[in-house]
Amino acid sequence: MAVASSDLPGRLAARGQGSRLRLRRWAEGYVLVLPAIALILLMTVYPVVQTLHFSVSRVQLPTFNTTFVGFANFARILSDPETWPLLQRTVVWVVGTVALRMALGLGAALIFNANVRGTVWMRVLAILPWTIPSVVGANLWRWILQTDTGVLNQSLRSWGLGDWALNWLADPDTAMLAVIVAYSWSGFPFVMLLILARMQGIPEELYDAAKVDGANWWQSFRYITMPSLKGVLIVALILEVVSGINSFDTLVIMTGGGPADATRIWGLEIYERGFTNFNLGGASALSVLMFGGVLLLFVVYGLLNRSLGRKGDAAA
């Protein structure tokens, strides 16, 4: 015991020296990554703080001098009778594009996951819409959907379906559907790649065992494929929701928000207020409201997901 007591100061000293050495190594590491951290803060935190500042201010251009107005910008937006139709159109846009992109991505992934000759080249062709710049893709679809000379209407007339040849982009009843299809076409390959990559990792032994037990294609898909894709589907869903809310370039090019504001959504309204009307205060307030809505949506989703997980554990 005496020997152990005499070794105690030495052990404490060694432990303290080791702690100082680890702290020194951590400090050196933080010094090395400090420029990257500063750049990230400059590129992310500063714009957010500036947006919050503009949202409670009246911004004078071109000097960018600000006058504090409190929540006047938010009150003006919430009292505007056009705000709620704008929100409804945004919900229709997000739900439509996310649902179509997810459905097309899942369907294409199921097709290209099959061991069929030629699927490699088919995958390359399916990825092409994602590689085309959004400006080019939107102009391409605008040309396809032209009333008189568009490929779609010309084809319908040649097939004897002239009654189906509509004024797709100039009719408020069809404009939203047209831009949803165009936007989904350009982005579904991203969802397909995410799902296909996960499908490639599902062990074939699971499907072989299911076949031995007499499971058909639908049962294998329901009880093996879909549970295995749950994680990647959630990630794809979150990314597509954020992308749909923030999108506006396809709408600007194809319809400009028309006709009769039928395709004007929240992101497009932010763009026009900020960069067309130069109302930076109103645009910033719209951005803050959009961020708050998205944050609330994901909080609710997280709570529901946790609740369902607990019920599943309790049932198991």
Shape: flat
Mean pLDDT score: 85
Structural class designation: mainly alpha
Q: Give the terminus-to-terminus CA distance.
A: 53 Å
Strand order in space, largest sheet: 1-2
- Give the total of beta strands: 2
Number of helices: 13
Unreliable residue runs: none
> From the alpha-carbon coordinates, what is the Rg to the nearest angstrom?
27 Å
Query: Which band does the percent of strand residues land in?
Result: under 5%
Helix content bin: over 70%
Order of helices and strands: HEEHHHHHHHHHHHH
**What characterizes the major β-sheet?**
2 strands, antiparallel
General description of the model:
This protein is 76% helix and 3% strand. The protein has 13 helices and two strands. It has a two-stranded antiparallel sheet with strand order 1-2. The chain is flat and about 65 Å long. 22% of the residues are buried.
Task: Annotate the secondary structure layout.
Layout: H1 2-55, E1 57-60, E2 65-68, H2 72-79, H3 83-112, H4 119-131, H5 134-144, H6 151-158, H7 175-199, H8 204-212, H9 217-228, H10 230-246, H11 249-254, H12 266-275, H13 280-315
Antiparallel strand pairs: 1-2
Helix pairs in contact: 1-13, 2-13, 3-7, 3-10, 4-7, 7-10, 12-13
Characteristics of this structure?
316 residues, mainly alpha, two-stranded antiparallel sheet
In a few lines, what is going on in this structure?
The chain is mainly alpha-helical and 316 residues long. It has helices spanning 2-55, 72-79, 83-112, 119-131, 134-144, 151-158, 175-199, 204-212, 217-228, 230-246, 249-254, 266-275, 280-315, and strands at residues 57-60, 65-68. The radius of gyration is 27 Å and the shape is flat.
